[in-house]
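User: Structure please.
Assistant: Input sequence and predicted structure:
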Amino acid sequence: QVQLVESGGGLVQPGGSLRLSCAASVSIFAFNAMGWYRQAPGKQRELVATISLGGSPNYADSVKGRFTISKDNAKRTVYLQMNSLKPEDTAVYYCNAEKPIEKPTGYWGQGTQVTVTS
């Protein structure tokens, strides 16, 4: 079965950095794309960044220039490097893997909390 496990969240000050990791239980070549979403209390879950099978990244405008998504196929892991963090980045961050034919809603991790405050 497919499992995604996020790690790397924590409490940081504005301007600080964190690196999130998403480890998959299967080869990430099995997925059309992978990405990161986030959800703040009382708000809808929103796209942060995605990366295609070939490695092409896309970012939400709110994080462009500050966040970088990458992957290591051998380690079955997708990363999100977050720099210049702002209080508005505070949210639970979720890893997502797309395989529409098998599961139209995609696969999701349990989430990792990121809190940015002074």
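The mean pLDDT is 97.
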